[in-house]
Amino acid sequence: MAERILEALPADHVRGTFIGRAQTPEGPCVIRLSDGKLYDLTGEVSTVAGAIARRAFDGGTELGAVEDGLPEGWTLLSPIDLQCIKAAGVTFALSAIERVIEERARGDSGKAAEIRRQLESRIGAGIRSVVPGSDEALQLKAALIEQGMWSQYLEVAIGPDAEIFSKSPVLSSVGYGAMIGVRSDSNWNNPEPEVVLVCDAHGEVVGATLGNDVNLRDFEGRSALLLSKAKDNTASCAIGPFIRLFDDSFTLDDVRSADVELLIEGTDGYRLEGKNVMAQISRDPVELVAQCLSEHHYPDGFVLFCGTLFAPTQDRDVSGAGFTHKIGDKVTIRSQKIGTLTNTVTTSRDTPAWTMGISAFIANLAGRGLVEKI
């Protein structure tokens, strides 16, 4: 286990403060990593949401050095608990074009290559340079409508309103080392490596982690109204490994300039590498948070997937069909200052059942005398 934790952490982890969760024989615990040591915060604050709300990041019971790993029988969980899980979509020009391709292909991967060539030649340069919601964006929209090229995805890509959706239920996300799921009836799907902002109830961003917004291109391509089926399935939301809190060693500017690297390794010898470059995002992360907060209330805070530049087009089996997952794919998402999130692909049908919902979680805390520490 010691090796797993060190593999998950960034090289400069001794400079930062990290908050996470671990499954213990008694139940979930809140843990802190700082100055090269591990601490159990659960006796003082029993939820990550509560720790963020009260900025309760100090103290706790020392567990030992990071290099010694977690105690025997403990495993890493997703580092969030009671927060709502939100996501922003179509926040990069390339992802906007890929969503239009899915729409025009009606979810048929075999049609994607030719549609991609047509769209890139006609709207690629314009959509990459325009500021969403600007006068130039309105002019581009008018021109695309006139050419019969307009799409609902271009509306959220360059219009005034970002696409914000609920990714997954509270407590359903999986963490570092867990299985991730794609629907067993999907034949065109992909990982989406993203930075995930961690916010309190007032929308203040307190830190960041990594996420895999597992995506079904065939479902959403058939109809945007199938977004929930494309996005929200058992084990389809991976977050981790830890939340790195903002301090002198890690700031929002580090998020803005982050590179998020992706590696997919198949049991068939297939290998695909990609990168999500946050500097190319169309809307600033703070604007995305503001649009997510909007007129909503998130009493326990929320996390927000920022979207991805990465859209895999490299063929895997059939020429022109692009990429899709196979069972057993190892997906590694890494960013220099945030860490590494690694998961293995299976179907949502075959992933371990999600059983600790909100009622079971509260009951577990109550049985341990920790409800008052939420």
Write out key terms for the chains shown.
374 residues; alpha+beta; eleven-stranded mixed β-sheet; five-stranded mixed β-sheet; 11 helices; globular
* Shape, per Cα inertia axes: globular
- Rg: 20 Å
- Give me the strand/helix succession: HEEEHEEEHHHHEEEEEEHHEHEEHEEEH
Please work out how many helical segments DSSP would assign: 11
The major β-sheet equals: 11 strands, mixed
How many DSSP E strands?
Answer: 18
Low-confidence stretches: none
β-strand amount: 25-35%
* Helix proportion: 25-40%
Task: Measure the end-to-end span.
Answer: 28 Å
**Average pLDDT value?**
91
- Subunit organisation of the chains: single chain
Structural class, by secondary structure, is alpha+beta
Blueprint (SSEs and pairs):
Elements: H1 2-8, E1 17-23, E2 28-34, E3 37-40, H2 48-54, E4 61-65, E5 75-77, E6 84-89, H3 93-105, H4 112-129, H5 135-146, H6 152-158, E7 163-168, E8 179-182, E9 189-190, E10 193-199, E11 205-213, E12 215-216, H7 217-222, H8 227-231, E13 237-245, H9 252-256, E14 259-265, E15 271-277, H10 285-293, E16 302-305, E17 330-335, E18 339-347, H11 358-367
Parallel strand pairs: 6-16, 8-18
Antiparallel strand pairs: 1-2, 1-5, 1-13, 2-3, 3-4, 6-7, 9-12, 10-11, 10-16, 11-13, 14-15, 14-17, 17-18
Helix pairs in contact: 3-4, 3-6
Care to describe what's here?
The protein is of the alpha+beta class. Helices cover 26% and strands 28% of the residues. The strands form three sheets. Strands 1, 2, 3, 4, 5, 6, 7, 10, 11, 13 and 16 form an eleven-stranded mixed beta sheet that branches. The chain has a five-stranded mixed beta sheet with strand order 8-18-17-14-15, with no helix packed on it. A hairpin with a 3-residue loop joins β17 and β18. α3 packs antiparallel against α4 and α3 packs antiparallel against α6. The longest helix is centred in the first third of the chain and has 18 residues. The chain is globular, with a radius of gyration of 20 Å. The mean pLDDT is 91.
